[in-house]
Specification:
Chains A, B: Keywords: Aminotransferase, Neurotransmitter degradation, Pyridoxal phosphate, Transferase. Two copies of one chain form a homodimer. Chain A is of the alpha/beta class. Chain A has 16 helices and 14 strands. Chain A is about 40% helix and about 10% strand.
């Protein structure tokens, strides 16, 4: 664990600010008395251990229909509000996992309720169109006011999809099509290509590859899964492609204290990327695209520096590979900018950027050059869902109106400082606090301890997520304010103080 | 083209019934005056050629955002009702393609509008849960009253997904997991499997395969696409798996006239299936599952007999392969039974049945034995969408209340008889009329003629779909009644009479 003078000083200053003293003491914040939004509760409230008896009975019922091993508890979404998730046993928890980071502005936000009660919107819900052949009249306008209003730099084209996996699958296909079109000089495919593609053989189905990183998560459909390398349970027993996998930098935290060491580690990984590109070209399986998360999420909240991504983007350009930034989890404002890649400061950050989760619809942006040359190459029945675009428009209105990116930056800073303080106070339990905006994480000493902390916290009204081997990940909403941070830190502190 | 005495006799009898005489004459049906449902129009009404000027302007606008080559026209979904799709230029068309077969009970059905205005349902729309970890209280009940109420014979387990491709991808994964668990006797995976799966290598990512059929369509994500063999444009330039592809029977229509020839053709294909299973096992890429559509749709509406499917199911069982029936397009009542496989008359028709489109949510059923042994093996963020289950429940209520399967059988019979009559009258243009329920199709003499007929019909107010090389496919709603059939046949007859 990194524990430099700077960290200790920061922790001391935080302890003073937050009046954090001995184990068992609680964070008390000046902002804790701030008025909460009228639609939200003011604190967690627990009635039973979680899962409570009602959840357990429902678990038994659902177990006759599906594998229920991943279910935490059953929810009363009607009663949930803002940052508070209410379960069927009447327990109200501060939710900093938010349906795997997919609730942008909290439960039952009034702005989203209004979408439902606007009679002009009914048709978008009850008549789901095949958007690729018969779009509704307002489709271009709705795209412009929703997904295109937040398009990444250099991108004016977008394709919506139903979920994150479909978005990445189709982004991969877009890169393959672009790459082969380049290779054959945009000429028509040969007879041999036409013939072989129907029977899954090269050259029609070419031996192209996507380079991904160890620890990555890009989804679980077979194409995506070939680029996912975060957990055994995702991959075991599923056939895959022989595609190159580069090491993702294993950095030391806090990043600002290990600049030199981290730069060396990043240089090592970048060198390996170039080696793999060359090697796979020699193997006859050229790298059509490189896919990467700005922060590896499922794989354990692994960060890299802007410099790493800038150099990687250049390597992709140099070798003629498309550069695909997967912002399914990092996008939507949670890092304090709408897209995590904005932190890199590039005008031309990527060729493809995919999204889902907090954007409520899946999809991906791409540069003009990657536009498929013919219709029906990128296609499916639904191609997204206009009713989700309606919700997204409202979410974006709320983000702008309430300056939520500033809120995220403010809350995120407080959260990260609090985590630094906690790991200083409990160095035998916690380490490697890290984050950008509220997209924060901290490691436990092992997975059993991590799981135990999470269960105890849940029983005290704090619902968190896990990732990697022994990491706790924080994925609150964009309306997660400083007083919510203090509730979080108070509960976590109580759990740690009691931890044997 | 098959043109036996029986067909001719049938056609003559139909001509008398429907008063179809010389080219140019029109079908007049006794039921044509039947009162239409209060929520529907009574006939097509055309104001411009399609696409009209407003559609063309919107096409230009959307062209700056996406490839628009597949778009027919822009729609006014608010004004569309029942079987009639209204476009932005005020043209009202009888829609027998229904958003690629995905509108079950017509546009703006009052029962679906009510789902939207019921305040108890609002939360399901605005708080999309991560169903695999935090389901809503009513989730087991809603599954039971929606998807489970129409579960195929022998199946009590279901997993919802966001779309058809995700459903098939996860169905494949379910079969791979089941197959490997069988192989290792349900023991824990070896260290070597655990290690290799993270880098996409065997044995962790085993060389297993799915056997599919030439002409099949199972989706366009990379796993699905390896089993799709209907059109070059779907497959070209996308890497694939070396999986076995069997011939799908090329039958002669009407089926009842070519029983002996068709049985021979089916026997040939079944023999090839067994050969491929043996060959791929020897290649070290055993067939974990066989996937097939009850009627190949995208590939050209290719039928096979119940006997073929019964024997195929037995071959799968004999060789220890899972049998996956893809009912994404055939399911939902359009063949006159809720599932097309019900026509086979089997108690144990399949190990896996996937669905989407008319069911409004994707998903798949499976036998108990295929239940994944551990959580998170079949998983993604959303795992479906409870708001779609609400709509599905209402669709099923309407189907039951209005006996729509009987309606489909009745309308389908009239439609197929009408198509027989048309191909008898225009043997130089049409052939191979075929269908089950309203899931009907007819071939044109070539693709240019097919496309020309479709455009002319569209301009007269009939919107149809295409499939295969030169096929017109009919995919009307379940509220498509006999007088709609007569409208369809009248317009088609007018187009054919004018056809040069």
């Amino acid at each position: 664990m990194a524990s430099s003078l700077l960290t200790r000083q920061l922790a001391i200053s935080l302890q003073q600010n937050l009046r954090l003293a001995a184990p068992g003491s609680r964070y008390v914040s000046k902002t804790a008395t701030k008025t909460v939004s009228e639609f939200e509760y003011d604190a967690p409230s627990m009635k039973t251990a979680v899962p409570g008896p009602k959840s357990q009975e429902l678990l038994r019922q659902l177990g006759e229909i599906q594998n229920v091993g991943a279910i935490h508890f059953f929810c009363n979404y009607e009663e949930s509000r803002g940052n508070y998730l209410v379960d069927v046993d009447g327990n109200r928890m501060l939710d900093v996992y938010t349906q795997i980071s997919s609730i942008p502005i909290g439960y039952n936000h009034p702005a989203l309720m209004k979408v439902m009660t606007n009679p002009n919107n009914v048709s978008a819900f009850v008549n789901r169109p095949a958007l690729g052949i018969l779009p509704p009249e307002n489709f271009p306008d709705k795209l412009i006011e929703s997904v295109l209003s937040i398009a990444p730099s250099g991108m004016t084209r977008v394709q919506t999809m139903a979920c994150g996996s479909c978005s990445n699958e189709n982004a991969f296909k877009t890169m393959f099509i672009w790459y082969r079109n380049k290779e054959r000089g945009y000429a028509n495919p040969s007879e041999q290509e036409v013939g072989t593609c129907m029977i899954n053989q090269s050259p029609g189905c070419p031996d192209l590859s996507i380079l991904s990183f160890m620890g990555a998560f890009h989804g679980r459909t077979l194409g995506c899964l070939a680029t996912t390398h975060s957990k055994v349970i995702h991959k075991l027993d599923i056939p895959s492609f022989d595609w190159p996998i580069a090491p993702f930098p294993k950095l030391q935290y806090p990043l600002e204290e290990f600049v030199r060491e981290n730069a060396q580690e990043e240089a090592r990984c970048l060198e390996e990327v170039e080696d793999l590109i060359v090697k796979w070209r020699q193997k006859g399986k050229p790298v059509a695209g490189i896919v990467i998360e700005p922060i590896q999420a499922e794989g354990g909240d692994n960060h890299a520096s802007p410099d790493f991504f800038i150099k990687l983007r250049n390597i992709a350009r140099k070798h003629g590979c498309a550069f695909h930034v997967d912002e399914v989890q990092t996008g939507g404002g949670t890092t304090g900018k709408f897209w995590a890649h904005e932190h890199w400061g590039l005008d031309d950050p990527a060729d493809v950027v995919s999204f889902s989760k907090k954007l409520l619809t899946g999809g991906y942006y791409h540069r003009d050059e990657l536009q498929p040359d013919k219709p029906y190459r990128i296609f499916n029945t639904w191609m997204g869902d206009p009713s989700k675009n309606l919700f997204l428009s409202e979410v974006l209105n709320v983000i702008r109106r309430e300056n939520l990116l500033e809120e995220v930056t403010r809350s995120g800073k407080t959260l990260l400082q609090g985590l630094y303080a906690l790991q200083t106070q409990y160095p035998h339990i916690l380490s490697r606090a890290r984050g950008q905006g509220t997209f924060c994480a901290i490691d436990a000493c092992n997975d059993a301890t991590r799981d135990s902390i999470m269960i105890k916290a849940r029983n005290k009204g704090l619902f968190m997520g896990s990732c990697g081997e022994k990491t706790i990940r924080f994925r609150p909403t964009l309306v997660f304010k400083e007083y919510h941070v203090h509730q979080l830190l108070n509960i976590l502190n109580d759990v740690l103080a009691e931890h044997k």
